[in-house]
């Protein structure tokens, strides 16, 4: 396949095409993954999460330029929380990351529509495409809320949580976000009022709940404060995490296998709901001719056979 050899060369068009296949074409996607799977699992995955508007895209844009100076060329996948058609966030992310795109970084938004299993499937497989095209690390931007956040922590080797003083987050809400402990916490928009207080509060709180070496940094994408420090910290962490990457990969593959099995079963169940046998048992239960436990057992056996 020409696509595969172009991917290996890191050709942008091939990457774009491969990710589109992954997002939109299940059977073609299967064929593609079969070809590239063996070579996957080697790049460090950096997950950058935090509330909407915290400055994640702006921060990634500036940080990528600093990483470049350190000899590192990442690719970026921004998970778009809005619908695929609205385009708002996609455009926003693109505009904010324009400098880093110019520097040779590959940036792509992927939609977070559909079932949660489908989200992680396209993230994981898009990562594989970027790994095959020799990008390392791969940065994933996602809104820190709900399902996607949990999935990101199952995928990322390094997790970065971004806050800022102007999202109206009190230290209470931030504490809630901090329970999913990241490797680096960032108080962004340090050029704005309240950043220092927030930084002190986050540091105090992290110090009180964790004995590990967790980094808290203050950054501003307007004044560039803290950006090079952040990039250096990422470089150090990449080196460290590479030592445990194999183990982490095994864990990630187990999560993935389970996700796929659950998803396959779920798809069968969705199909079941307009199935005659299902209807028959449903009626039996609703007319109290059969109890729901026995009926569910019978249906389950039909699904998993
Ligand atoms: N004052 C100030 N504004 C910033 C800073 N970083 C980002 N912003 C602004 O904050 C707004 C949101 O920035 P984004 O980078 O789009 O934030 P995001 O977290 O990627 O947003 P979503 O992807 O929509 O969740 C924009 O108007 C940025 O210009 C900063 O360091 N200081
Ligand atoms: Mg963004």
Describe the overall structure.
With 305 residues, the protein is of the alpha/beta class. The chain has two domains: 40-244, P-loop containing nucleotide triphosphate hydrolases (Rossmann fold), CATH 3.40.50; 257-303, no CATH class. The protein is built from 14 helices and seven strands. It has helices at 2-8, 12-24, 26-36, 56-69, 88-96, 98-102, 116-132, 147-155, 171-178, 195-209, 227-243, 245-272, 276-286, 292-303, and strands spanning 45-50, 75-80, 106-111, 138-143, 158-163, 184-187, 215-218. The chain has a seven-stranded parallel beta sheet with strand order 3-2-4-1-5-6-7, with helices on both faces. Helix 10 links the parallel strand 6 and strand 7 (215-218). Helix 4 (56-69) packs across helix 11 (227-243) and helix 13 (276-286) packs antiparallel against helix 14. The two termini are 36 Å apart. Bound molecules: guanosine-5'-triphosphate (GTP) and magnesium ion. Guanosine-5'-triphosphate is lined by residues 52-58, 89, 92-93, 96, 143, 188-189, 191-192, 220-222.
């Amino acid at each position: 396949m020409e696509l595969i050899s172009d991917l290996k060369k890191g050709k942008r068009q091939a990457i774009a095409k491969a990710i589109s296949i992954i997002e939109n074409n299940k059977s073609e996607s299967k064929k593609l993954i079969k070809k590239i799977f063996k070579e996957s699992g080697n790049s460090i995955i950096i997950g950058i999460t935090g509330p909407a508007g915290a400055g994640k895209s702006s921060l990634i844009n500036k940080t990528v330029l600093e990483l470049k100076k350190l000899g590192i060329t990442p690719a970026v996948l921004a998970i778009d929380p809005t619908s695929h058609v609205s385009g708002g966030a996609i455009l926003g992310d693109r505009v904010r990351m324009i400098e880093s795109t110019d520097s040779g970084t590959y940036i792509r938004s992927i939609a977070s529509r559909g079932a949660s299993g489908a989200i992680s499937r396209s993230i994981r497989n898009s990562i594989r495409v970027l790994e095959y095209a020799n990008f390392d690390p791969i940065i994933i931007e996602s809104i820190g809320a709900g399902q996607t956040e949990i999935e990101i922590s199952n995928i990322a080797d390094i997790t970065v949580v971004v806050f800022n003083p102007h999202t109206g987050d009190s230290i209470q809400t931030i504490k809630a976000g901090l329970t999913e402990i990241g490797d680096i916490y960032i108080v962004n928009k340090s050029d704005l009022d309240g950043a220092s207080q927030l930084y002190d509060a986050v540091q105090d709180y992290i110090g009180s709940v964790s004995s590990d070496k967790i980094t808290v940094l203050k950054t501003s994408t307007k004044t560039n404060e803290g950006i090079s420090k952040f990039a250096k910290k990422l470089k150090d962490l990449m080196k460290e995490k590479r030592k445990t990457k194999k183990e982490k990969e095994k864990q990630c593959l187990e999560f993935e296998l389970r996700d796929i099995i659950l998803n396959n079963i779920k798809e069968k169940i969705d199909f079941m709901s307009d199935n005659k046998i299902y209807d028959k048992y449903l009626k039996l239960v609703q007319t109290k001719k059969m109890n729901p436990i026995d009926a569910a057992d019978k249906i389950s056996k039909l699904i998993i056979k």
